[in-house]
Amino acid sequence: MAKKDSKNPDIFGQALLDFHNDKYSEDITVISSLTEDDEIPVPYLFRSYEEMPEVEQKALQLAQGKTLDIGACAGSHTLYLQNKGIEVTALDISEGAIEVCKSRGVKSTQITDILDYRESGYDTLLLIMNGTGIFQTLKKTESYLTHLRSLLKTDGQILVDSSDIAFMYEEEDGSYWRDASRDYYGEVTFQINYKNQTSAAFDWLYLDFKTLKKEAEKAGFTCEKICDGPHYDFLARLIKTES
């Protein structure tokens, strides 16, 4: 999500802390450049494995070895892997999110932007809940993937989910419209609002599988689709190739 600073409060972190500390009273509002405002129910961010969609469950089943959960949020995925005996670190830019992770029992955490993270030797990088979003735009995708590649062991994997949002541009007559100001139709700008605080605008990227595969191969990965979700979403596995 958006970087936090004095003018950009840690909204996700505050919402997570409120719920965790029994102060839950409202959900997070998402303001989108593409569609009407939506809500993220805060309790959903604390879901159990049984409550997760199949795409997420499959990603957790495939995670192995030393694992980095990027954008760990409340730590639900991290905790599941930790309880399986996997060596896993929760990484998030939100101080509040990491505070919640620690309070819930996550043993290893990092508060940082993924592009500033340098520890390498990972077997698995986990990027779920529309993991391609952190790439921001199509033009930045290859550089993000190149950095992620540097964190992996040889033959290491990235497990990432996304959605093909072309359906959101379909007109009633079956034609499609496009935002001419965007390089790619999956680029969306969001803000989030919680308890009268609104974040700065930030870019978020939804990639269709064909485009993800193309970008992954440019950055030194093979890419396969693992499964499709029920609503244009999918899980992909990127495997690091030899230099």
TrEMBL record:
It comes from the Bacteria. The keyword Lipoprotein does not apply. GO terms for biological process: methylation. It holds the Pfam family Methyltransf_11. Gene3D superfamilies: Vaccinia Virus protein VP39 (3.40.50.150). Residues 68-159 form the Methyltransferase type domain. InterPro entries: Methyltransf_11 (IPR013216), SAM-dependent_MTases_sf (IPR029063). Keywords: Methyltransferase, Transferase. GO terms for molecular function: S-adenosylmethionine-dependent methyltransferase activity. This is Putative methyltransferase. It comes from Leeuwenhoekiella blandensis (strain CECT 7118 / CCUG 51940 / KCTC 22103 / MED217) (Flavobacterium sp. (strain MED217)). The lineage of its organism: Bacteria, Pseudomonadati, Bacteroidota, Flavobacteriia, Flavobacteriales.
